[in-house]
Amino acid sequence: MSNMKKICFDRILPRNLRRPVRFERMATGNKTRAINPIGTQWTNGSALKVRFIGGTAEQHAVVKRFAPQWTEFANLRFEFDGAADAPIRIAFADDGAWSYIGTDARSIPANQSTMNFGWLDEAVVLHEFGHAIGLAHEHQNPAGGIQWNQAAVIRDLSGPPNYWDEATIRHNVLEKYRHDQIRGTGFDPKSIMLYSFPKEWTTDGFHSDENANLSATDKAFVASERMYPNRGTNPVTVEVPVSTIQAIKASIGKAGEEDLFRFAVRTTGRYTVDTDGETDLIMKLYGPDSTTHLLAEDDDSGNGNNPQITVDLSPGQYYVQIRHYNRATGTGQYGIRVYR
């Protein structure tokens, strides 16, 4: 089966190895969507730097040609500048096609790749960059309902050219995400994030042809409020003064909302960012002068359920992202301040 040579597999951080779970059936009338594992998307409006590790000029050109299709819809930019601190680092080894999902790439040492192309065409570039911006495999969508012939899948993927063990097969093909682990509920058979697999792999004859282009759902989902809306605009940020007493009042007005603040550091020193109020929050600090370089993250180090981050900072612009710990239903008011 030649199509088995073109199966991408996930690179999963050790802490996430048990994240996908078996299918749980749930009736839904929601609109069809792609799926995004919660906690893996970048700050909206980010410029994602990309560095090649090896490869030829021709290979680089193929990636540069096709990857930006995502940015025609998602409010992101790819900068192929070879920066040492690039969060997306691409190799071209004979190691299959794979990518870490979204911000998981930040946990990988800077001298290691976060994406690999064992073969190269438009479809695989779009697929792997879909992972890089935070999308998971569509066949692991819990609303998909694919009836796998597990014995056939395990038999075929255990042999050439994959030689996967059963745990790898189950993780990459047979297991599903829980509904509370993802954004999105519907199944899109035309998604660029869906595997191509034969009817022999299912018990009801369902099969998937190779999808070589972004589907209408792929485009709509990454441009939606759930992912990267307002393409071509900078993320809306609120300036927070560095003050020992003044707090900026804010609120999580709807479930899943993420607020973004900025503050300027003019002299090197130790700074504290914290929140107040009854709302249970999680905080991320980025910078300097970057909305993708994560410096620190905190949940409950402040008063009550408030986060607090204290860190030494050099001059530059810094960004603070605030969200409710409960992305599904959490809302509430809070205050944020920065002081030294």
How do the strands and helices of this protein lay out in sequence?
Elements: E1 9-11, E2 36-37, E3 47-53, H1 57-66, E4 77-79, E5 88-91, E6 98-100, E7 115-116, H2 122-132, H3 150-158, H4 166-174, E8 182-183, H5 216-222, E9 238-239, E10 248-252, E11 258-265, E12 269-276, E13 281-286, E14 294-298, E15 308-313, E16 316-324, E17 332-339
Parallel strand pairs: 1-6, 3-4, 3-5, 5-7, 9-11
Antiparallel strand pairs: 2-8, 6-7, 10-17, 11-16, 12-15, 12-17, 13-14, 13-16
Report what the structure shows.
With 340 residues, this protein is of the alpha/beta class. It folds into two domains: 2-222, Collagenase (Catalytic Domain); 238-339, Jelly Rolls, CATH 2.60.120.380. It has helices spanning 57-66, 122-132, 150-158, 166-174, 216-222; strands spanning 9-11, 36-37, 47-53, 77-79, 88-91, 98-100, 115-116, 182-183, 238-239, 248-252, 258-265, 269-276, 281-286, 294-298, 308-313, 316-324, 332-339. The protein has a six-stranded mixed sheet with strand order 1-6-7-5-3-4, with helices on one face. The chain has a five-stranded mixed sheet with strand order 9-11-16-13-14, with no helix packed on it. α1 (57-66) links the parallel β3 and β4 (77-79). The chain is globular. The N and C termini lie far apart (63 Å).
What's the SSE pattern?
EEEHEEEEHHHEHEEEEEEEEE
The CATH homologous superfamily name of the largest domain equals Collagenase (Catalytic Domain)
Report the mean per-residue pLDDT as an integer. Answer: 82
Instruction: Outline the biggest β-sheet.
Output: 6 strands, mixed
Spatial arrangement of strands, main beta sheet: 1-6-7-5-3-4
Percent range for β-strand residues: 15-25%
CATH class of the largest domain: Alpha Beta
Work out the count of structural domains.
Answer: 2
DSSP E strands, number: 17
Radius of gyration, in angstroms, nearest whole number: 21 Å
Q: Helical proportion?
A: 10-25%
- The rough form would be described as globular
Q: Quote the CATH topology of the largest domain.
A: Collagenase (Catalytic Domain)
Number of helices: 5
Structural class: alpha/beta
Unreliable stretches: 1-5, 14-33, 178-185
CA-to-CA gap between the ends? 63 Å
